[in-house]
Each structure stands twice: as C-alpha cells, then as structure tokens.
Amino acid sequence: MKKQTAVIGGMLLAAGIAGGCTACYDDNCEPAVLPMAQMADEAAAPVMKAMGRGRSMAARNVAAGNFEAPEGQQIAYTATLTVQVADIREALLMARDLVNKAGGYVKNMNDSSATLAVPVKDADAMLNQLSALGIMTSLQINSENVTDQIADIDVRMDNLARSRQRLLALLEKAGKVEEMVKVEAALTRVTTELERLQSQAKQLASRVQYVTMTLRCQAQTVQPVPKDTAPVGWVNGLGRELLSPVTVAEGGMPFDAVLPPGFVQAGFGRAVSAENCVLQFRQVPNAVTRRHWYGNEYAPIDFYLPMIRQALTALGNDKITEQKRVFDGIEGRQFTVELTLGGVPYVYTVMIFVDDDDVNLIEGWGRKEQFHQILPETAWETLLGN
User: Fold this and answer.
1) Is 50 exceeded by the pLDDT of residue 75?
2) Beta carbons within 8 Å of 67's beta carbon, 6+ residues apart
3) Structural domains of the chain in order of their starting residue, each with its CATH number
C-alpha cells in the first residue's frame, strides 16, 4: 500500500447563597441536607423522548421532597443547577416549554441561562426534567423561612387598613379646610404604606407558591477515550484535535496522494480548505499477534474496528455510520459521526486500511454544511484513487 497517513485537522473537545438552609449536589461537596435517593425516571422521560435519546448514564435523578414545607411554615425555595448540554439554545427553549406546560413562567433568559418560576408542587419533577437536558454538574437548593415576615406584614396591613377606615370617617366629618388637608395628608401616607405592604405580601406569596429555578447551560465537553480504555494508543487519540486552529504551513505529504479540489497542504501529512475543513494522513505500526523467526504475523482490521466504534461513541454520539472503502486494492472501513459543539454541528470521519505491518488512517472534520459541500462522495473517490 502507498505510505499514507491520516488526516486529522484540529480537535479540541470542548470541554453558598444566603438562605435558611442549603443543599449542595456538586461533585466536590457532600449532600448536607437533601438525600440523593433515586427518583422515578418518569419525570425525566418526556425530555429525553423529546430530544430523541435515552437517559444518559451520567444524568442524575434528584430526590423527591426537596420543596415540602413543614406544616404551618411558609418556605421560599430557590434552586440553581448547571447542566452541560450539546446545544445551549435548544436546551433553553426546551426549558421554556417545560415550565410553560407546568403552569410556570420564564422570569428572564439570556444566551446561556434562564430563570424560571415553577409551581412548588411541580418543582421536583421540573428539576429532574431540567437535569435530563444534558449532564447535570452541580445543583444547589436554598430555602428561606418567611413565616414571620408574612405574619408581621399581615398584622401591619390590618392595622393600616383600620387606620385608613378611621381617617376616611374623619374626612367625612371634617368641617374646616385645614382639618381636611391634615386628614387627607395622613390618609395618603397610610394608603401609600398599605399599598407598599400589599406589594410585599404579594411578592412573598409568589415566592412561596413558586420555586425560582436558575438553569445555567454549558457547552457539553466531548471527551476522548481515556488513555487506558483501548490497548492501542492511537485509537485513544482519535478526534482529539477537533476544532484546534490550523495554520497553513510548508510541508509535504507522506505518500503520493491527490488532494481533493479546494484543499492545500498545511504541514506534513495535513491539508486544509478555505472553509477550515481538515484532512490528515497518519500511518502507524500494526499490532503483532505472533512472532516467528521467518517473519511476524499482524492483526487484521477486525482487531481495530470495535475499539474505533468505542472511541467514537465516547466523543458524544452513539449514532455512527460505517461504510466499506477500498484503497490501493485493500478493503477498509470509514466511520462517520456528527457532533454538536457549542451549538454548531460538526462532522468527524476516520478511515482505516490495514496492510500487514502498517495501519493507514485518513481522518477529516469540519462544520457539517461546509464539510459535505467540499467533500462529497466524488472527492473521497478521488482521494482514494477509485
């Protein structure tokens, strides 16, 4: 086989609030108040179904009963959770739809977070649905006992209402202008204070009836396969350079290959297009299965295929397409996955051809739309000499 290496352009895989009581579900802290007992998956199932995937192994179920106030107590709850998601905009829109269906509303929303008001009776289920949008990395629940505040405001409002009635009665009896002016001034002060307390009472009632949830979304970090996952080192590095910057530089190709139209050399064994789609060629030694004095036996392509599938699944996508390819008379395999990084769809592909003591790899990636435009099927056939 021609001495060919593989194309891999760049793959950088992204990757205490005041209150009466606080519970923390962070990887670095112990749950102080709330238990982490498992909750039924029904709460998260609608989200996972809507997003077209099963529940992630990394997703957490949040315990029930987080927002139950003791009998006779008025408790205002808040919750803040951070979730790594594949598409931030999609996750925020999903959160908006979920809270609307639950009878709540969006308080505010920006390009990476949303503050939601959720009816307290639906708060546990909502917490599980929001965590199912991706991978929840932290959760904090705060509570504030506002029973005394509400009681105090109620007493003050009752007193002010009584004062207002007395002043209205005096105003009717006032005969002189000076008396009327004084009574009206007092009436204005009492009415203003009463309206202010009524507004406070309304806000406190809303805080008790609705849990304020702040959802913070982060772009999901796509992780390469851990080093010890595959017995062959180069498999663990597949896709590791995605999204890394590519600088056009002098360099040759490690074999005679015709680059597809629109690509230029960008260093040894690497090519890049104007749309920043990348091709890279690599050649690594094949694994030895048996040694003889007259020559070694080497691993077939089937030895590598399961490891490549596992490596690509670890990139964050279990929908892998496979296609047979032929290069220099040797049958190989092409694997392609689609990834969403920071809300942008990308394509990553890798071809493998095993020729006795050599494993030849061709890798490529770029934004989905540009990638398919500049690398249609005819471009791959040209590259492979078919």
Assistant:
1) yes
2) 75, 77, 120, 123, 124, 141, 211
3) 34-221 (no CATH), 233-384 (3.40.1000)
